[in-house]
Structures are given as C-alpha cells and as structure tokens.
# Entry
Amino acid sequence: MTPALRLRRRATQRPAAPAPRTAACGPAPVIEVRSLVKTYGHGDATVRALRGPRDPDTGEPSGVDLTVGQGDLVAVMGSSGSGKSTLMNILGCLDVPTSGRYLLDGLDTGGLDEHQLSLVRNRKIGFVFQSFNLVPRTPALAQVELPLAYAGVRAAERRSRAMAALTLVGLADRMDHRPNELSGGQQQRVAVARALVTAPALLLADEPTGNLDSRSTEDVLAVIDRLNASGRTVVLITHEDEVARHAKRVLRLVDGRIVSDVRQAPVDGPPPALRDPAAFAAGRTGGER
Ligand SMILES: Nc1ncnc2c1ncn2[C@@H]1O[C@H](COP(=O)(O)OP(=O)(O)OP(=O)(O)O)[C@@H](O)[C@H]1O
Ligand SMILES: [Mg+2]
# Structure
C-alpha cells in the first residue's frame, strides 16, 4: 500500500474520539524528532535556525532531539529568532528539515513527496494561527466542514461532525455567524473547531492568543485545556507566561537549541488548570508532584 493510500485509509478509520492511552507502557509518541537541523542560505549567509547542542567530538551541531507523547500539552517559548516557527513549520509538515528525522504519529515524514505531505497535514495535524485564518463571509459551520470536504467525508457526516466540534468549543449558538459577526475569541474558537474536526493526532498552535484580549485568551485556553484533558496532543508557541502556565511541559529555545524542558504536570493526567483549579487560579502551578 502506498503511504498516501495508507493515510487515506487511516483517516477514514480514525474514530472521532481520541485513541485510548496505553496504561502499561505510557502513551506512544506523537512526535519523534532526531538530530534535526535546519539551515537557511549558503556560505557566509548561512543561518542555522535549528542546530541543537554541539557535538563534543566534532564541534558540529548535533541537531535537535524531541519526543512528545500522546496527550501532552507543550508550550514552546523563546525570544524572536530563536527558531520557534522553524520548528513549528517542520512539525506541521509545512517545511522539511535540512537533516535529521521526524516521525509523526509513527509515520516517517522523511520520504514523503509534496502531495503526501499535504495529506499528512490534512489528516494528522490541526493548525491554529494567531490571525485565525478564517474564510471571509463564510458561516462558522461551513468553515469547520471545510477540512472534512477536503478529506472526502460525505455531506451528512460533515455536518454532524462540524456541529459537534462547534458545540465542543462552546459555539452551538453561533453556527450561522460569519467571522465579522463574531468576537475575536469566538473566531479563534471556530478556528480551533476547524482544527480538531478531523480528529488529528496533533494540534499545532502558533501564538493562538496573540491577537486576543485577556477574557478571550481565557476562553480559548479553557477550550485547549478541555481538548487536552480528553487526550488531544497539543503543541503551542507562546510569548506569554500566562499561556505557558496552562502547559504540562514548557520548552525554551535559544539560538536553535532547546535549553530547558520543564514538566509542569504529568503527561497522562489533566493539564495544570484542570488538575487543581483553585491552586491554578491562585497562581500556584508548581512542578510535577
Ligand atoms: N526563509 C528564511 N530564510 C533565511 N533565514 C530565515 C528564514 N526563516 C527564518 N530564518 C532565520 O532563522 C532564524 C529562526 O527564525 P524563526 O522564524 O524560526 O524564529 P522565531 O523563534 O519564530 O521568531 P519570532 O518570535 O520572531 O517569530 C532567524 O534567525 C531567522 O532570521
Ligand atoms: Mg515565529
């Protein structure tokens, strides 16, 4: 079977609910990155956007290693130019590494051509962007149905799954509203519903609350917390400590290297905000207990 066919078959077989976790040996990795290097340009103009630590023997960059288990909620932080978007683009199969390996949900993305990568994006990854990226003048329900239409899901099922996704993000009463009839937080929740309607293995969010006021930020983070609590794996980029508090794990990038990796809550439990809501509200998240 070709990778494309295999993907198509898995997409139609994947249940709407997240796959069960394996209790005995822990969750299987959704992301496995090994020795990942990304360089831009040539010669003197070469930029090593992702490099990892230096190999002590050769002095050469040994690349970034990263494993993200199913059900984790990871925040990626770092100053401007540290490599966050470069990493996100590779994890989202929007770009390919210069060297190294990337396995997504067990699938080695290294040998895939452009068409196969677009299938991977559609079937396995849900994207949420800072600027919402909704289709203008299109009702919320149609927005959320769109990725299912690309995936070839028939109309009746598209409708019911899109309605369920919008209900999940608290917008059951806004299905007919167009983007200009929704608040920023509501628009971003439509985008989250659109990202999760295909039941992707991974939800990737690049500054999902960057354009939102604090109230809408809380609404969107509450949705992400609930999605993660039901087993969805989430990786999000953020500059805000307030957003990173919601993560189970916080990575910090400096100059193309992961310089810290802090676990704030176990991967196989609820995210910090739902684990101990009173302590979270009081600003006490703490490390892993
Ligand atoms: N297409 C490109 N061509 C050349 N250099 C690039 C390209 N894209 C990114 N870079 C460089 O790679 C490095 C990492 O960029 P990246 O966009 O990943 O940073 P970032 O952490 O997302 O920053 P920000 O917080 O500003 O979005 C930067 O030095 C940047 O200038
Ligand atoms: Mg960026």
